[in-house]
Design a protein that fits this description.
This protein is 47% helix and 14% strand. The protein has 345 residues and is α/β, with parallel strands linked by helices. It has two domains: 2-226 and 317-344, Alpha-Beta Barrel (TIM Barrel); 230-302, no CATH class.
């Protein structure tokens, strides 16, 4: 397994990048840069490219609605050039609150849009003249729309790589199937190794059956908070507020992908109660109702033996990139330890 982490801005952006430089020396393979409604991810990725030498720099994720498909492709090619071939393009739909509430764009056809964007990006990186006639994107604009002066163009620059890895954040059955068919990697949030096959097995199999042989096996990225030692179990509770936010507040009733997932894990009653409380503004009460079993299963916090067992469970379930958030006085040491334990698997 590779080892990755999320760029943490809690102590300041430049301080976070300083830590990534240290973690890179300790054996970190990949760093994910988020983009919600904060600073954009691309600026940060460019800065990381200048400060690091080996770590892969991954968008985690760029929302599919906020840029044209060709700009997404141009951006990934630019970061890939700056980093000498270390860019990973992570894409996701985000949610209606962000896309409609912050960007003012309709949140429509996320599955179809993602599929089309993947195809267009790969055309751009191959330096094909970009032509696409889809339900969401038509390139060039057809006759009768715009000025009529558009013509197929190809990227001026020669990309460092003609195939930049595309990872998709997906949870729903059809979206996971499409990810297994089209993407280089999969980013499932709240991944529970012991239940992954029951929840997503059929969807992954259906997508893999349609997968082009040239893509190779799909990477799977999953993990959680990481802490080792006597105080490690208490660290698990740090994930409660975020879990409650996603399960309770990231969406409306009947349209919350994370709530749906927790229900599929078997926590139907808890998922409903968490959402009701969160939407009523009772965030602390919602966090308190997050099941201990869910918190434990989606984190890596405990004794050395316990964490080693969890690493083995992730690997056995098909995870190829362990994504961790090290918590403790010495994050670098934690990454060094886990790097060694992974190599022992």
């Amino acid at each position: 397994m590779k080892l990755s982490t999320q760029l943490n801005y809690a102590g300041g952006f430049k301080e976070a990048v300083d830590q990534v430089v240290e973690l890179e020396r300790a054996g970190l393979d990949m760093v994910w840069v988020a983009e919600a409604y904060s600073f954009d991810a691309v600026s940060s990725m460019g800065y990381l490219a200048a400060r690091t030498t080996t770590v892969e720099i991954a968008a985690g994720i760029l929302p599919i609605y906020t840029r044209t498909p060709t700009l997404i492709a141009m951006t990934a090619a630019g970061i890939d050039a700056l980093s000498d071939g270390r860019c990973i393009l992570g894409l996701g739909a985000s949610g209606p609150q962000v896309i409609e509430g912050f960007h003012g764009l309709p949140y429509d056809k996320p599955l179809g849009r993602t599929r089309e964007i993947i195809d267009i990006c790969r055309q751009v990186w191959r330096r094909d003249r970009v032509e696409h006639d889809g339900s969401s994107y038509r390139i060039p604009l057809p006759e009768g729309e715009g000025t009529g002066l558009g013509k197929p163009l190809k990227l001026i620059n020669h990309p460092v790589r003609s195939t930049i890895p595309i990872y998709i954040a997906s949870l729903g059955p059809k979206n996971v199937e499409m990810t297994a068919e089209k993407a280089d990697g999969w980013l499932p949030l709240f991944y529970l190794p012991e239940k992954a096959k029951d929840v997503w097995g059929d969807d992954l199999a259906a997508g893999t059956a349609k997968r082009e042989a040239g893509l190779g096996p799909m990477e799977i990225v999953a993990g959680g908070l990481l802490a080792v030692g006597e105080a490690a179990e208490a660290v698990r509770d740090l994930s409660r507020p975020m879990t409650a936010l996603y399960v309770g507040g990231m969406g409306a009733k009947g349209r919350n992908f994370y709530n749906d997932l927790v229900r599929r894990y078997g926590f139907e009653q808890e998922a409903e109660q968490i959402q009701d409380l969160y939407l009523d503004g009772k965030k602390e009460e919602a966090a308190a109702l997050v099941p201990d079993e869910l918190i434990e299963a989606t984190t890596l916090c405990g004794s050395e033996g316990y964490v080693r067992d969890r690493l083995a469970a992730y690997k056995e379930s098909g995870v190829t990139v362990l994504n961790v958030t090290p918590v403790g006085p010495d994050p670098v040491k934690l990454i060094e330890q886990v790097r060694g334990w992974i190599e022992d698997l």
